[in-house]
Each structure stands twice: as C-alpha cells, then as structure tokens.
Write a structure and sequence with these properties.
The protein is an alpha+beta fold. It has 8 helices and 11 strands. It has helices at about 65-75, 110-120, 120-130, 135-150, 170-180, 185-190, 215, 260-270; strands at about 5, 25-30, 40-45, 50-55, 85, 105, 195-200, 205-210, 220-230, 235-240, 245-255. A 5-stranded antiparallel β-sheet has the order 4-3-11-10-9, with helices on both faces. A hairpin with a 5-residue loop joins strand 7 (about 195-200) and strand 8 (about 205-210). Helix 1 packs antiparallel against helix 2 (about 110-120), helix 1 (about 65-75) crosses helix 3 and helix 1 runs parallel beside helix 5 (about 170-180).
Length: about 280
C-alpha cells in the first residue's frame, strides 16, 4: 500500500516549498496504479504535499537525472552569455556526445541547454571543467551543494553521471534536487524546450531534440531530465502542470518499455488526486 502524506514545510523554496524541509507526516491510505519503476516519489509543489512514495530512501544510481545538479551549479554561477573554450580533456564519453572539439568555444547558455535536452557527456565535461578546473573538483562542488540542500543520502563522483563506484542517490534526495532545479528560471525554461539546434564554431548547425519523450506526447508535461545506464535502468524526473497545480515526479529504476508509461501514470494519477480531502488535523 502506498501512502499519501501531508507535509509541514519549515523553510521556503518555490515561495512555499523548500527542498531542504523536514517533513512531518501522517498516513492516509490510497491505492495508486502499479508501475515497474523501483523508486517513485511525487509531490504537489503548490503546498509541498507528498502524493506518492515507493522506496524513496533506497540508495541507487540515478544516471543522467543527476545532471540537474550539474545544471543547478552552472545556472547559479551566472554569466550565461560568456564563451567557454573546449579542451581535449573534455573528450567524448559514450554513449552520447555533441562532438565538440579543442579550439572551439561556445556560449555557456547554449552548452547548458543541450546538456539538459540531450545529455551530451562531452558538453557536460566542458561545463564542469570550465567552472571548477577539473572533473574531480566539480564533483566536490556537487557534494557540497547536495549537503547544502539536505540531500543526506547522495554522493557524486562525476558530472556526466555515468556509473562509478560510490556514486548514488535516492528518490527523496532527487526530489530535493528537482525542486531546487525547478525553482531556477533558466533551468525551468530550458527543460520545456522540445526542439532546438546547435551551431558549431565552424558554422554547421544540427537539430537537437529533447530526449524526454513525454514533452512530445503528454501535453501536461513541462520537462525535466532523463537518465539511463545499465546499473540505474531508465530514469525520469518530470514536472506536469494542470491549471495552477504542479506535480513533480521522480521515477527511478524503470525499463526501456515502461519508463514513459510509468512516469505519465505517476503524474496523471497524482494530478487527479491532489484535491482528496485529508482528515482534520493534517496540515
């Protein structure tokens, strides 16, 4: 049985919901649909109420959904119109790259955009190195930011998010990160982009399609970030809006066939159940 919780928010993020809040919960039984995903967490961002939870504190790899941490650090650093040089150490890491090369330079905003839309690993490495000096130093910043946000069960080893020993998070911690990222106007703008383009220094331009299939198939979805490795399975952090209500969902450890169905099911069911009356005394 999955439980519905109402939470007391002690500090403010998104004006009323702080990702670092301590939660006080009392259960109300509901029966949501079955999903394949190993961990699920859904929250109503208008009041911070937790709608759906499944294995939210189980540590697991989260693949490229953790690029939201990379994006948050880069977006908060500002100077998004500045040009960043590419170095050979930003070299390609399979499976997905933009194939940027040493000697070229690109606007930070453009690199941030295509990283969030399509998870290009060489772009991610370029952003991390330019910001912190090295991949290791950027990972240190990721862990410092995680501690600041209250992500107590997360540890990051690299910015590009491919599997490495010691790198993990939980659905609860990724919800904290997702809420913080969603509160950033630049990230919120980018994750809603369905299609864009990337112009190389030499002049060639290529199309970039957002890898979040729900942006293309589910009208209430407004982004956020996909992820996949063999260790993590198919993962998606997504937001959906209906009227003045926004649901944020973390879906981890699904599979190729089910991740989109799982995620849409979680968001639709959560939006459908936002207005369920709670017992007196639950705030």
């Amino acid at each position: 049985m999955i439980r519905l919780f109402s939470i007391v928010v002690l500090v403010s993020l998104l004006n009323r919901f702080d990702a670092t809040a301590q939660l006080v919960a009392q259960p109300v039984e509901l029966t949501p649909p079955e999903v394949t995903a190993k961990s699920v967490y859904a929250v109503d961002l208008s009041n911070g109420r937790v709608i759906w939870e499944k294995n939210i504190n189980e540590k697991r790899p989260v693949a490229s959904t953790q690029k939201l941490m990379t994006a948050l650090i880069i977006a908060e650093s500002g100077e998004l119109d500045s040009k960043l040089p590419v170095k050979h150490t930003d070299g390609q890491i399979e499976p997905r790259n933009m194939w940027i090369t040493q000697g070229s330079s690109y606007q930070k905003r453009l690199l941030l955009e295509v990283m969030l839309m399509r998870s290009y690993n060489d772009v991610t490495k370029c952003l991390a190195r330019n910001h912190a000096g090295s991949q290791g130093q950027f990972a240190t910043l990721m862990n410092a930011k995680a501690a600041e946000l209250g992500m107590d069960n997360s540890h990051f080893v690299n910015a590009h998010c491919l599997t490495e020993a010691g790198q993990h998070s939980t659905a609860r911690d990724m919800m904290i990160l997702a809420a913080a990222a969603y509160s950033n106007p630049e990230i919120r703008r980018i994750v809603q982009i369905k299609n864009s383009s990337f112009k190389y220094t030499g002049g060639k331009s290529v199309p970039v399609k957002n890898s979040n299939e729900l942006l293309h198939t589910y009208s209430e979805c407004v982004g956020m970030k996909t992820g996949f490795t063999k260790a993590a399975g198919r993962c998606l952090i997504a937001a959906a809006v209906r009227g003045d209500k926004t649901v944020l969902a973390v879906v981890l450890g699904s599979n190729f066939d089910d991740v989109w169905t799982d995620s849409e099911t979680v968001m639709r069911w959560s939006l459908d159940n936002l207005d369920i009356a709670l017992p007196a005394g639950i705030v």
